[in-house]
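User: For a benchmark we're assembling, each entry needs the component sequences followed by a predicted structure for the full assembly. Here are entry 17's components. Please fill in the structure.
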Amino acid sequence: MNLLENATPAQREAITHHDGALMILAGAGSGKTLVITSRIARLIHDGVPPRNILAITFTNKAAAEMKERMETLLGRTSAWISTFHSMCARILRAHADRLGFTRDFIIYDTDDTRSCIKSLIKKTGLDSASFNPRVFAGIISRAKRDAITPDDFAACAYGPVEKAAAELYPQYEQALHSNNCMDFDDLLLMCRRLLRENSDILQKYADRFRYISVDEFQDTNPIQYMLARLLACKHKNICVVGDPDQTIYTWRGATLQNIFDFEKDFPGAKVIRLEQNFRSTKNILRAASELIKHNVMRKEKTLITDNPEGDEITVMESGDEQDEADNVARFIRDCVDGGCAHHDIAVLFRVNAQSRALEESMLHHNIPYTIVGTVAFYRRKEIKDILAYLRLAVNRDDAVSFTRAVNTPPRGMGRVTLGRISDIASREGVTVMDVLAGKSKESPLSKRQKQSANAFCGIIEKIRAMHDKPVTDIVMEAVRLSGYQRRLEDGRDDRADDRIANMDELINAAAEYGRQNEEATLQDFLEQVALVSDTDRWDEKADRVTLMTLHSAKGLEFPVVIICGLEEGLLPHMLSMESPDQIEEERRLCFVGMTRAMKRLALTYARRRAVSGRYHDRMPSRFLNEIPADAVDIRKTAAGEPDKTDGELDDDPGGFSGDLGFKGGDYVQHEHFGPGRIMSLQKRGRLTHARIFFEEAGERTVVLQYANLKREEGW
DNA sequence: GCCGTATAATTTTTT
DNA sequence: ATTATACGGC
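Assistant: Structure for entry 17:
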């Protein structure tokens, strides 16, 4: 095979690794995707049946790409290539009965979860003014991804908010169960439970998956790692690939602990480092490397490249965000005039709100563009409204979809009546649809309401009866039956045209999905909709400039990258400025953005920016000062401002205060944990808590006064 | 009791 | 700009 032809020795070693655990620490741009794909292709080439292979990717898009590559190499494949969430959904559907669900369960997204919790708050009689569903959703989600049960949570709950959360958590679980629904965390958690409690099922999958690989391992959470370990328990052929410097999802529960644990959980695991970068110019790589060196909580790693030196990095100062967007447009123009295609260019930013000014500027300058993932398509109101009908047809128990669909458009059953319906349903132990259909003992409905209730039940039944028809037909029928379109057409919604276009787009998406998956059911389509992100819908072949968040850019590369909004408060983000850990994650995010660039990189900031309508003066990001000055070319466009670029901002990594002679960034030696480096110090009364990154033991918090730390020279 | 309109409030990143 | 709540008309 020619897979090895151009490979470096390290890559070659990874590709040819057969049995036993393997961890690949792959620096940015080191060709890791190629390596894992090649390794799997080689396994298959050497006689491993594809059905014995499981490859976990971070996004559905990455899964689709890998599948495509495999199919060009080997033809149609029966290997499982998917995200953790999709894999879990698939396993759970096959065995839902063991957990008391049916295979038709619906997957709740964050909004659904919030509505569900909101109605529980109301039902429980908690003061809904002071308790925000979002906060509880966050607390419960955090508990779930650390595998903390409602009982455990209640035992440790402290303070009014946690106490309330402890009350809501089991109710939420109960509601999900009786709605026959699972949220994103459940997919992982329930799957783990299924495998742990049913040894026959675990056996089946552990037998089947002889070779397992997990991509973007640095961004997996504890449950995901537990799942991977469970599935690998028989053959122990698990290959994880990751780069600690690219951890950008700790807010979603990702933890580097997984990387530290791996070698302990799989003794004798081979560790391979890929440190040669094939993507970026020397200049870009050097700048990114210097930046990431400012992270304290990090193992030193040096990326090298044979690529040419390349152009200097352009740093642009602008007056405000419009000015910035214009400068970006001009920069793009220059690139295009220099022979660059639009699809070679990406504009990256920290928050979705930044896309608006950029979009206007693209329109104004006539530059073709696509925005990835602003208001995710499937989360738009009109789309969710139609989906609610479809979901209800698949699963009558889904109370959240019921609440959404039943009065969209209005059917004469308002807040009060719906509250009564919900009360009766829980009192009699039936579903809300049953109450509506008059199957309960009590009914709160007036004669007139009964009529429209019947009409509504009829609509749902009609959609349900179409279950063996093509998905497109079902979606079209749902749009028609709901009366939604008609209402938009007469109504005075000034964005009616947009909404109608979006519903057409939904029908197109269903058609496209139906074409690619001929056997697909409505339920499959709904699952796809729940798990597929906007990035997955991104069409990279079109000749357009791509606008997206730094998070969405993970795993991608572009010849030209422009990162906007390098300002204190935006990158690093204001909400991440409280703790050094979070600042480091912001720095990694910036690092990820910079290392997407192959040839040209531009970084921009504005002196003023509107934040929710009000203009604020801004300071250039500290990250700009962490990039070597000789790697950049600074351009200022708007005149009349005093010079303030470098120099003025001092380079203080967090401004830690010293204590017992220790300060942030110091290298230390601990009796048990060995060598480490202090990330942060926090005074707690008389004592000082030190957050320390240990080379062997990972992140720990120790009390400085008791820890008996010794000074070290550095690693 | 329902529904539409006005007013207030609010945005990090996403499977 | 979109979305949650409040209020008044029906």
